[in-house]
């Protein structure tokens, strides 16, 4: 693999609205939630980059994940919409909002006729996203980029450890058996800014280690805190500015604090963001948006001192075959026992509507446990999990993707071992299951149990090593 020489850069941007026009099933949680309103728009944002024979389109979508159905659908449309763009040079990351539509028809029971089916929304999303990618690609013009790093306190480790060594996600930390928070937090914000030929700011990529889940259990359609962040940034730097959010490794992170909740709620009141009566998490979204915008304000003028119009660019796409997390006979026995319990529950709930929370929760949990049995059978013939890896070098910085809800430990390992000045780790560019750290496996709980994982720590080690190796080759 040869090191690229400096080449003039061409940049294109586009943004499309992918908000559903009917009620939908919202993805996230273990029960069905039917949307009752649109609080703010869902967006797809695309940044096209080309230098010499190198091309890459970075896409961000207000979604919970990026299943193969969507990615393959978008790529299948591109030869008609952008014939000179190789579809494999496109990757799409999800911001991991829990208030965007479901796209897989077989995950839930049928809902009432006025609810858009997941398949209907998937078809609309694919078409609009493909059009957005093509528009960005066709809008390429000479331009420049700069980069910088700042800080915004947005994400917190969401796993607590008890004195007996067991872990749990969220829960009350104010108990006598609380020991410590399981893992680290990363409040860094990696930023890439783009400019036109006249050095006018056109857009930015913002990468931080937190899923967009401040209002994750709501029944409205929403991009979560990225809506407030985009609004704040555009009010200061231009309403036509493109903002492309990326979630870094954050499988064990959340915008929800596990302690100091009352003190933080009081501060929101003192800031005039909360009246003490309404949903405090809506106020938290505004606060998070302001924090992200403040980080941008601190960096943007400094980064503009070093705009690069010619730079090394190289985009590599690889398939990594990661060892699966092996399901044990004990895992199978436990899953079968849980499945039987959920089937007993469902038998007593058949007279309730399919949208009933208790019925749909039992339905969702049964499906989740059935996944353990399916993976047990699959690992006999397919011991590895194929994952598409994108590594993009752009001057002194690099982007590296993965398909998982990747625990923070792995992202930090990539960043500290990378030779790049800044390493943008981009998770959820695929269907996404949790990839837990070794220390979290010992504590158990959601996110680190067999039903939560396709790949475990052994695969995580391979992912880190292969990602770092690819980055190092681009900087050789």
Keywords:
476 residues, alpha+beta, four-stranded mixed β-sheet, 10 helices, globular
What can you see in these coordinates?
There is one protein chain. The protein is 34% helix and 25% strand. It is an alpha+beta fold and 476 residues long. Helix 1 packs across helix 2 (118-138), helix 3 (225-237) packs across helix 5 (280-303) and helix 8 (408-417) packs parallel to helix 10. The longest helix has 25 residues, at 357-381. It is globular.
Write the layout of secondary structure elements.
Elements: E1 7-8, E2 10-17, E3 37-38, E4 43-51, E5 54-61, H1 68-81, E6 90-94, H2 118-138, E7 141-142, E8 144-151, E9 156-157, E10 159-162, E11 167-169, E12 178-181, E13 188-195, E14 201-208, E15 220-221, H3 225-237, E16 242-247, E17 253-254, H4 261-270, H5 280-303, E18 310-311, E19 313-323, H6 329-347, H7 357-381, E20 384-394, E21 397-401, E22 405-406, H8 408-417, E23 422-426, E24 434-435, H9 438-443, H10 457-474
Parallel strand pairs: 3-15, 5-6, 14-16, 21-23, 22-24
Antiparallel strand pairs: 1-18, 2-4, 2-7, 4-5, 8-13, 9-17, 10-11, 10-12, 13-14, 19-20, 20-21
Helix pairs in contact: 1-2, 3-5, 6-7, 8-10
User: What about the largest sheet?
Assistant: 5 strands, mixed
Mean pLDDT over all positions:
96
Q: Give the helix proportion (percent range).
A: 25-40%
Low-confidence sequence ranges? none
Which structural class best describes the helix and strand composition? alpha+beta
Count the beta strands. 24
């Amino acid at each position: 693999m040869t090191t690229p020489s400096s080449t003039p850069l061409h940049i294109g941007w586009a943004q499309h609205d992918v908000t559903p026009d009917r009620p939908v099933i919202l993805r996230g949680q273990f029960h069905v939630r039917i949307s009752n309103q649109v609080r703010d728009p869902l967006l797809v944002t695309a940044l096209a980059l080309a230098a010499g024979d190198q091309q890459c389109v970075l896409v961000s979508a207000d979604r919970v994940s990026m299943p193969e159905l969507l990615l393959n659908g978008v790529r299948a449309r591109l030869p008609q919409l952008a014939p000179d763009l190789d579809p494999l040079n496109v990757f799409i990351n999800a911001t991991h909002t829990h208030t965007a539509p479901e796209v897989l028809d077989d995950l839930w029971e049928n809902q009432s006729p006025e609810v858009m089916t997941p398949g209907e929304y998937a078809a609309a999303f694919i078409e609009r996203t493909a059009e957005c990618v093509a528009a960005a690609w066709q809008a390429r013009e000479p331009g420049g980029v700069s980069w910088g790093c700042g800080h915004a306190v947005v994400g917190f480790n969401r796993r607590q450890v008890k004195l007996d060594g067991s872990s749990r996600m969220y829960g009350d930390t104010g108990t006598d058996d609380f020991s410590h928070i399981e893992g680290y937090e990363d409040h860094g914000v990696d930023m890439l800014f783009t400019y036109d030929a006249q050095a006018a700011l056109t857009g930015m990529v913002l990468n931080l280690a937190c899923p967009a889940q401040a209002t994750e259990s709501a029944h409205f359609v929403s991009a979560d805190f990225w809506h407030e962040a985009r609004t704040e940034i555009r009010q200061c730097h231009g309403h036509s500015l493109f903002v492309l959010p990326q979630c870094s490794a954050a499988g064990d992170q959340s915008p929800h604090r596990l302690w100091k909740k009352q003190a933080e709620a009081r501060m929101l009141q003192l800031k005039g963001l909360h009246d003490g009566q309404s949903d405090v998490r809506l106020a938290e979204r505004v606060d998070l948006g302001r924090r992200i915008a403040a980080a941008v304000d601190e960096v943007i003028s400094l980064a503009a001192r070093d705009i690069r119009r010619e730079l090394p660019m190289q985009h590599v796409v690889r398939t990594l075959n990661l060892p699966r997390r092996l399901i044990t006979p004990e895992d199978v026995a436990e899953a079968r026992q849980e499945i039987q319990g959920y089937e007993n529950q469902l038998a007593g709930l058949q007279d309730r509507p399919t949208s009933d929370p208790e019925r749909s929760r039992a339905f969702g949990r049964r499906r989740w446990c059935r996944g353990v049995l399916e993976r047990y059978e699959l690992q006999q013939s397919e011991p590895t999990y194929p994952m598409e890896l994108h590594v993009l070098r752009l001057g002194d910085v690099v982007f590296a993707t993965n398909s998982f809800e990747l625990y923070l430990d792995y992202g930090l390992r990539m960043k500290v071992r990378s030779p790049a000045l800044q390493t943008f780790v981009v998770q959820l560019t695929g269907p996404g299951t949790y990839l837990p750290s070794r220390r979290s496996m010992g504590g158990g709980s959601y996110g680190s149990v067999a039903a939560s994982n396709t790949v475990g720590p052994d695969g995580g080690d391979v992912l880190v090593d292969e990602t770092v190796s690819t980055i190092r080759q681009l900087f050789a």
